[in-house]
Amino acid sequence: MDMRPGPDDVYVIRPAGTSGAGAADPGTATTGTATPDRPAVLWSAPGSLPAAVAEVAELWSRRARIGDLANVSGPWGVVLSNPATREHILAADPVGVQPIHWALTATGSIAVSSWIAALADRPDVDDAIDYEGVLISEAQGIHAEELLDITRFRAIRAVPWGRALRIGGDGSVRTEKYWFPDQLPGPDESLTLDDCAELLRERIDAAVRRLTPTDLVVGAHVSGGLDCTAVACHANHVLAESGGGLLAGYSWAPSEAHVPRFEGEERAILDDVVAQEGFPIRLVHPDESGDWYFLRDINRYPQSTHIRERWVLPMAAADGVQVMLSGWGGDELSSFNGRAVSPMLVRQGRFAALWQDVAARTAVSHPQAGLPRKARSFAGALFYTMPPWVAELRDRAEAREVAVHEAEIDARLRAISPRSVEVRRHRDHFFATCADPREYRLGLLTGGHIQHRTSGWYQTGRLFGIDYRYPLLDLGVVEAAIRLPWWAFRSQGWSRVAYRKAVDPWVPASVAWNVGKFEPALFWPPERRPVQRKAPPPRRESPIDDPRLIEALQAADRSYDRGGVGAIDPSTRVSARPEAAAGR
């Protein structure tokens, strides 16, 4: 874990008249003054897909129109020049898979990087913590568009999905939105189930081929679930066409030395994958290789989800993996499980369709189920389509207890940022009341949920020299998923049925048609053994050391049962900036 920002990680744009314009800038790719006389790509962020950058360059050189970028799938992030308008354009891919950040330096220049630590560590960038940004980041939900550029640092901003920054020759900065997912074609009810499966298979195949390099060492997440396993297996097929294959699959499941096998768990499914594909699957071991997760600066490396990836990254890096394929994003879009379908059918008065769906799913999950059990399932489905306050009437005692706990969290958050309470409430309300599968998926896509994850994984991946790629977040797959009608997600007694049919030719039957699996990692609490803390390095730090913020985050962490945030130890997070400890 000795990776440090290199000269290609940061690009500095120096508007005319700024201090030091034209001077050399060690540690950056180049300066923004040496621009060509034609529209061109001046810089691409490490981790960008070379084919995507080439496509952006070709489109930009022809017309220099930001709207043309909406057709280029990621991951990519670039700085473009437009000599006709004397502007620099800072843009990220439409879905926002590739994170792009920028900061105004002390000399008036604009520093750009995907790696947020490369900006925060610069001596000319203020690295003071934005406490409100920390809380909004931890909400990981549905955010209003004006909040999408907030980071954990006051001076650093993100370029949100589907946006570009126009940076004028005078240093002015304005944002232009160029991709509008809410205008994508809606559910096409002329599609049959087989049509939906064929559409998904075609788009996923193209995405896997586009994102799987044949000249780099490739690994893949393999959980035994639909998304990661389908991506891994098909990537292995694609690599086999050129005589290669995946180096290995990487699972979060512990070895049998830590959790013995039990019936219905995913390691049996992993055996089926190994038997079919031939590549090894590495299981995790709870040893000191994961200590970096607790020693990291969580603002520069805010991977607050998927805590067990802390063992996968050093293992994969030691194996020589350069690209890690992941199925992340599938649940939210192409392999969506049908959340909000029941409320939609009730709202439309299609009770017969809801009954058929619930009865068929009950028969698949409980083959011996008779009419009484199906009726109970139907009643339960109807109940949970009601407004949240109806459920609270049934569970009054539990609702009161939750309300007290929520009020405590809100009080702690409000003391730091009243707006963070609104964000949290908006997220909870959205998930509780959304009654349309398309709206639900668009909310996950556009509200910062997906981009929060991909950005966090990019930051920690950079520590180990590993680039994550997500075929199920490819633009073509996203657009196809938004077109799917509701029965693509729930039909014939199955959830995710179109996706299952799409990937069936690629994966073992135990993966494609599995009713459910238990994750042994859930039955294996990570050991809370002492972690040897390192002394703060002799450089500027931007840790969290405000007691109010620590208490608020720990309270929220207990509420959502997420690992990582609760591990903050204020005694080891002493800021070198006296003003940081004073709060805002």
Helix content: 25-40%
Radius of gyration: 24 Å
Major beta sheet, strand line-up: 2-3-4-8-9
The CATH C-level class name of the largest domain? Alpha Beta
What does this 3D model show about the protein?
This protein has 584 residues and is α/β, with parallel strands linked by helices. The chain folds into 3 domains: 170 residues, Glutamine Phosphoribosylpyrophosphate, subunit 1, domain 1, CATH 3.60.20; 227 residues, Rossmann fold, CATH 3.40.50; 31 residues, no CATH class. It is built from 21 helices and 16 strands. It has a 5-stranded antiparallel sheet, with helices on one face. A hairpin with a 4-residue loop joins strand 3 and strand 4. The radius of gyration is 24 Å and the shape is globular.
Write the layout of secondary structure elements.
Layout: E1 11-13, E2 40-44, H1 50-63, E3 77-82, E4 87-92, E5 101-104, E6 110-113, H2 116-120, H3 131-139, E7 156-158, E8 163-167, E9 173-177, H4 193-211, E10 218-221, H5 226-240, E11 248-254, H6 266-277, E12 281-284, H7 292-295, H8 309-319, E13 323-325, H9 341-347, H10 351-365, H11 371-383, H12 388-394, H13 396-416, H14 418-433, H15 437-446, H16 449-463, E14 467-469, H17 475-483, E15 490-491, E16 494-495, H18 497-503, H19 509-512, H20 547-560, H21 578-581
Parallel strand pairs: 10-11, 10-13, 11-12, 13-14
Antiparallel strand pairs: 1-6, 2-3, 3-4, 4-8, 5-6, 5-7, 8-9, 15-16
For the structure shown, list the relevant keywords.
five-stranded antiparallel sheet; Glutamine Phosphoribosylpyrophosphate, subunit 1, domain 1; disordered C terminus; five-stranded parallel sheet; globular; alpha/beta; Rossmann fold; about 575 residues
